Amino acid sequence: MKFTNGFWLLRPGVSLFPAVQLQKLETSEHLVKLLFSTRKVEHRGQTLNSGLVTVEVSSPAESVIGIRLLHHSGGKPVSGFDLTRDPEPLQVVETESLLRIHSGDTTLEIDSQNFAMRWYYGGELKTEQSARGLFYAETPEGSQIAARVGLGVGELVYGLGERFGAFIKNGQSVECFNEDGGTQSEQAYKNVPFYLTNRCYGIFVNHSGKVSFEVGSETVNQVQFSVAGQELEYFFIPGSDTKQVLSRYTDLTGKPALPAPWTFGLWLSTSFVTDYDEASVTKFIDEMQQRQIPLSVFHFDCFWMREYQWCDFEWDPRVFPDPSGMLQRLKAKGLRISLWINPYIGQASPLFEEAKQNGYFLTRPDGTVWQWDLWQAGNAIVDFTNPAARAWYQSKLEPLIDMGVDCFKTDFGERIPTDCVYHDGSDPMQAHNLYTYWYNQTVFELLERKRGQDAVVFARSATAGSQKMPVHWGGDNSSNFDSMAETLRGGLSLGVSGFGFWSHDIGGFEGTPNPDVFKRWLAFGLMSSHSRLHGNESVRVPWSVDEESVAVTKRFVEIKAKLMPYLYSESVECSKLGLPLLRPIFMEHPEDPTSWYLDRQYMLGSKVLIAPVMRADGTVQFYLPKGEWVRFETGEQVSGGVWLSETHDYFSLPMFVRAGSLLPLNEGPADFEADFTKTATLKEFGPVSVNDSVWVYSRQNPSGLQLFYKTTE
């Protein structure tokens, strides 16, 4: 939130109390505790009638420094995220006016007489916090506590979850609070209170409630983040580049699990409100096979269950009288099966009374079940802080897995009330964003138990740490080029927020795409981490758009299958390091200043550049970073450091490989599940050395195999 009225004044009703002067210092091996007065104290009488700001400094991992800011300590404990902390000892050097605290290559320098905090990494000043850098405030909305971190000249901010507005966050006010707002608003399904900058550091706010960020939008040369209450914890996470920053951030919050190879193939959905039964589903699948379009997963959306009864986890017998037999027939065609679920139980569901009697729902303060009529009539919400409710929910899914279901689309989880009571006493404001974590964790853990390495969800909502349970998709976009662009911005922002694997509805969810939009989106969607055909009121089988869409679909599924040894091997590294497979250009080309501004193109892994076409006439403008590049299709070498304008038909898009790269490719029939260490062929893009090599991984050989391009005689 904003506290000031311009540079000089405060907003009406706001009183602000910053850390000003160090009054007391306590040190131990893993903690430095500082007490700051909120005004200059020149004699003991000035200690009366004023507050203190407590600052606790720790290091949860080497070179990462945490700040816990505290005003009053008598309130309820503040919820944070599930973090992996391996406390590092702090080295403290004190002089007359400066305090230097070291962890690894990071130094926090504190001016104890005139508050300032300066953050160094490898001896380089990264950022600083000066006057009003730490403060608490009394406002008409209640008590707030906040920090301000400097924005240097030319410094750019990214991240804060999957956000569909401008990719660079400078100038934006961002509320980290999950909402079901589609892709055309400032709201987000996946809020993550973490940002990184082109100065190669990140700030992570360990607060699961609403965190308000003012990114140069209140004080133009600072990022301010604030929360309601009396306590705030944040971490300064530096690195030699943005990859190392993300790796250290995901050391804290968790690495993305590695999805199974089959998940990278094409997913086809029934779509949402379309009419379907076993005959229509089978017809879709058979026609995909007849048209030689490789298909990996078939997804049944909401109406696999009866209307008004979501969720009862029972097949609608009117259209699926033999679900077990149907699934076996579909799986005999080589398919995996996905089912839509959500964490809500409508009042008409046979499960409602059972859950109500056992106390498995969120309740109101008076003890009644929290219900409303949004989505399903009499909707109640499963309380995943109750271990018995988690086990109960899993018990309803387990028979479906035994029947042959491979994974679940874990939809919703954003519209969670803040006037409810949780089984474990969680504060509902602080539990709001965490709800999606508990929900998806419940489902993912069951899938891990039943499916092992094949465990995967297709989730819409998320928060910090949810990357451990992939895959996530971009939510309810629209069937036009504008929405295609905002979808990509959302995916790039999510990637720099710690998420490794991401998808989106090809052609857009709302509306029916025209042939231009659909065919261009096919190329983008199939050159993404994960690829799904899904819509709202109309199906997305390609022949429903036009016949050429069939050929375009086949073309790009085959290109993705060809890339699969490369994509899977890159995904192994993404999982190990905490990097996104679909990543912004700057992550691979930070030395090129232009790369920091690009949001209509991306790197797919470390070596392949993709620029989706987002115009009906097929024209596309894109930038090749400095260096030499090779067209994937033709082998033509092009010098970078330039903007290019090209026109592409529906069967191509700008796709370049860094010169000097070796890519492991599948040159045979489309196969997303082969042992790539045995089937991959190394292809040279630009000149490489005789003994150049790449590591290739597969499910069959998880340790990987080093493949050499050529060896000397």
TrEMBL record:
Concerning its family, UniProt says: Belongs to the glycosyl hydrolase 31 family.
Recorded hits in InterPro entries, A to Z, give: Alpha-glycosidase_related, Gal_mutarotase_sf_dom, GH, Glyco_hydro_31_C, Glyco_hydro_31_N_dom, Glyco_hydro_31_TIM, Glyco_hydro_b
Q: Name one GO molecular function term.
A: carbohydrate binding
Glycoside hydrolase family 31 N-terminal domain location, by residue? 54-214
Domain of life the protein comes from: Bacteria
Biological processes per GO annotation? carbohydrate metabolic process
Instruction: Return the protein name.
Output: alpha-D-xyloside xylohydrolase
- Origin organism is Aquiluna borgnonia
- Give the stretches traversing the membrane: none
Q: Which reaction does it catalyse?
A: Hydrolysis of terminal, non-reducing alpha-D-xylose residues with release of alpha-D-xylose
* E.C. no: 3.2.1.177
Print the keywords alphabetically: Glycosidase, Hydrolase
- Pfam families linked to this entry: Gal_mutarotas_2, Glyco_hydro_31_2nd, Glyco_hydro_31_3rd
Query: Glycoside hydrolase family 31 TIM barrel domain: from which residue to which, for each copy?
Result: 256-569
Q: Where is the Glycosyl hydrolase family 31 C-terminal domain?
A: 578-662
